[in-house]
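Q: what sequence does this backbone want?
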């Protein structure tokens, strides 16, 4: 829908550059290349380090991110790809399962920006992937960066309002360890 605009948050600022892993399914290579270009540009603007890996399809994106979250040293992840509706129900399976996998990891605290396009046709994908148009790759990178910023902010805090863990404690009936007790 032409003419509709939306509010976009300003990119967060970082004391230490975040490390992002872009995981892309290049099934539609030109679409994927545009998504990557948009994501890299936003990451660069925020001062992030970026690595890119390719996987066979959108269903493999969550698996690769889960593996990297366990085994590699990244602050966040950008999921990129494109699923175009076809003649079978496979479209729904790929869209729903890739999105569900990313959402479940996000709920576990993994910082993920979802830029897997789910569209009716190639023309819709081209507009959404174009860094000079809707730039959904850039939007996914921005989402991951915002989540990294929040996780860093909250990692510096202690749990609970006004709660500070005791530096030492005694079990009831114990003495303080002095011989006179």
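A:
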């Amino acid at each position: 829908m032409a003419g509709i605009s939306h509010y976009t948050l300003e990119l967060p600022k970082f004391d230490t550059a975040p490390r992002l892993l872009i995981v892309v399914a290049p099934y539609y290579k030109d679409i994927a290349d545009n998504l990557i270009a948009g994501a890299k540009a936003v990451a660069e603007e925020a001062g992030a380090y970026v690595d890119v890996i390719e996987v066979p399809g959108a269903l493999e994106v969550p698996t690769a991110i889960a593996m990297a979250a366990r085994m590699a040293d990244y602050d966040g992840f950008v999921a990129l790809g494109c699923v175009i509706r076809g003649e079978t129900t496979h479209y729904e399976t790929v869209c729903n399962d890739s999105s569900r996998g990313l959402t479940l990891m996000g709920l576990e605290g993994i910082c993920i920006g979802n830029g897997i396009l789910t569209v009716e046709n190639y023309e819709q994908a081209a507009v959404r992937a174009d860094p000079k148009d809707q730039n959904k790759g850039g939007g996914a990178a921005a989402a991951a960066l915002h989540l990294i910023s929040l996780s860093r902010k909250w990692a510096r805090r202690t749990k609970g309002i006004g709660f500070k863990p005791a530096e030492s404690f005694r079990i009831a009936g114990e003495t303080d360890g002095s011989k006179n007790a």
